[in-house]
Design goal:
The chain is mainly beta and 294 residues long. It has a domain of 57 residues. The protein is built from three helices and 20 strands. The strands form five sheets. Strands 1, 2, 3, 4 and 5 form a five-stranded antiparallel β-sheet that branches. It is globular.
Length: 294
């Protein structure tokens, strides 16, 4: 057995103390750096404002997004001059299959301008349940990318705040219209866990945890709406777990165990009349290829 060898890679780190984000001296240092930046760029304020107004002047502030057809509805956004955020709407889908919006029948789903009340707001998730009866959405009101979770009943307008902290903002519905999957941040702001929550219940159930600090975890619904996916990926490697969207309390299945430097990104859809997995993978080359799996 060869003798062990001590190895020191980086030596002393004079900035290690900055990792303590709650220390007063760290906060004071950051404030001083921000003040210094403001001083150095003070003579650019007029130019910055002129550029902003020029860019803004080339944007049509009152506009309508391209409607997205889903089920019996068209979903779309409206922007209005003077508002900070677009409003989210839907209207009945025309029988002729067109994307024509019937303004007389449209429904306002969410108005971030009202929710912001003049303050900061970042909308994370915006996810309608498969029966089109509920809206799950998440809001960051502090700018720290930590989100609060909400569910709105689209028939009554009643909004329920979910009692969970340190959320990454993601929200994914199961096909029972009652179960949501959402992500949690660790103390380094890394999405590391996925939880399951059933509306009307107070608790949550952990369904996935990746303790490896190199990996970021998120949950999404496949294009087929038949499968849910948990993807854990680093900069070079990924691993996916899947579950039938009809069985939210079922067991998740790993599509392919992680292998160093193998990245793959799965989706589920209909190909040649068969439901299958469509997987973009770099297992055979750095530029990726598309594969089919049952």
């Amino acid at each position: 057995m060869p003798a062990p060898i001590a190895r020191v890679d980086h030596g002393q780190d004079p900035y290690k103390w900055l990792e303590n984000r709650d220390a007063l001296e760290v906060l004071d240092y950051l404030k001083a750096e921000n003040a210094y930046l403001d001083t150095q760029l003070a003579d650019q304020l007029e130019l910055r404002e002129a550029l902003f107004q020029e860019i803004k002047g080339r944007i049509r502030e009152t506009d309508l997004s391209l409607p997205s057809p889903w089920g019996p509805w068209l979903y779309y956004q409206r922007t209005t001059a003077g508002d900070e955020y677009p409003r989210h709407y839907r209207c009945p889908r025309p029988a002729d299959g067109s994307f024509s919006v019937d303004e007389s029948a449209e429904q306002l789903l969410l108005d971030p301008n009202e929710l912001a009340a003049g303050g900061f707001l970042s909308l994370g998730a915006f996810s309608v349940s498969q029966d089109h009866g509920k809206l799950a959405y998440s809001l960051d009101t502090q700018g720290d990318e930590i989100y609060q979770l909400f569910v709105k009943d689209l028939a009554t307008g009643e909004v329920t705040a979910l009692p969970f902290d340190d959320c990454d903002g993601s929200m994914t519905w199961a096909n029972d219209h009652q179960t949501l999957f959402f992500g949690e941040l660790d103390d380094t702001h890394r999405p590391h866990k996925i939880y399951r929550h059933r509306l009307g219940e107070s608790g949550r159930t952990e369904v996935y945890h990746d303790p490896d600090g190199r990996y970021f975890v998120h949950c999404y619904r496949a294009s087929s709406e038949r499968q849910l996916v948990i993807l854990s990926n680093s900069k070079t490697t990924s691993e996916a777990w899947v579950l039938s969207a009809d069985e939210p309390e079922g067991s998740w299945t790993c599509l392919a165990p992680r292998q160093e430097d193998h990245e793959y990104f799965p989706d589920h859809g209909l190909l040649d009349g068969q439901w299958c997995w469509l997987i973009r993978s770099n297992q055979a080359g750095i530029n990726f290829a598309l594969y089919q799996a049952p």
